[in-house]
Design goal:
Elements lengths: L3 H8 L3 E6 L7 E8 L2 E10 L5 E2 L9 E2 L1 E11 L9 E4 L4 E3 L11 E3 L13 E2 L10 E4 L15 E4 L9 E3 L1 H10 L5 E5 L1
């Protein structure tokens, strides 16, 4: 159990995942974890969007958004909790990410009864079916505060699938698991070219 002094010290020592691509057209990047401004892990090879990076990311454009974003408070995954400090939600049939810009729950996690057809459409993802990419993932809070229809959804830090992403950041499984276990509430991710 953390003492109050240790908890305050950790809070005062921010965590930042730094993802850097050589250019906005690149589909690969490096990722490192900084704590208190010092690198504690990485650089690791990462994959980014199939169409590179963009400061003007739009729904379905295949780019990874550029900027600094929070990391969501919940880690999701198909596998059992790998020992993360953040909340963990094990994915089951009926777990979706709403990617329909017309939906009132756009860019949010949704659970429906297994087999139910969602009212939202677009490219919404049946998360439990992504058996490689979503063994574990953290949410990159791009287009989250506030959510703007069409500005992009479902930007995650997930397992590498061996190819560029649709806009997410992916890492090889050993590095991803190590990173997810290390992350604390309040962690940020910075994506740049």
């Amino acid at each position: 159990m953390l003492t109050l002094a240790l908890a305050l010290a950790l809070h005062a020592c921010p965590q930042r995942i730094v993802v850097t691509a050589p250019s906005v057209r690149s589909t690969t990047a490096t990722a490192a974890l900084l704590e208190c401004g010092r690198r504690v892990a990485g650089p690791w090879r990462a994959r980014v969007g199939r169409n590179g990076l963009s400061a003007h990311h739009r729904e379905g454009d295949g780019t990874t958004p550029v900027g600094t974003f929070g990391v969501g408070a919940t880690v999701y995954g198909l596998d059992p909790d790998p020992g993360v400090k953040l909340r963990y939600h094990r994915l089951v049939c009926g777990d979706w990410w709403d990617e329909d810009p017309r939906s009132t729950t756009y860019n949010r996690f949704r659970h429906l009864p297994c087999g139910a057809r969602p009212a939202f459409g677009g490219g919404s993802e049946a998360l439990w079916r992504a058996t490689v990419a979503y063994r574990e993932f953290a949410v990159i809070q791009a287009n989250a505060h506030p959510i703007v229809a069409g500005r992009g959804s479902a930007i995650f830090l997930h397992d590498d699938t061996g190819r560029p992403t649709n806009g997410c950041v992916s890492l090889a499984r050993p590095q991803l698991i190590w990173l997810l276990r290390r992350l604390r509430p309040g962690a940020m991710i910075q994506i740049a070219a």
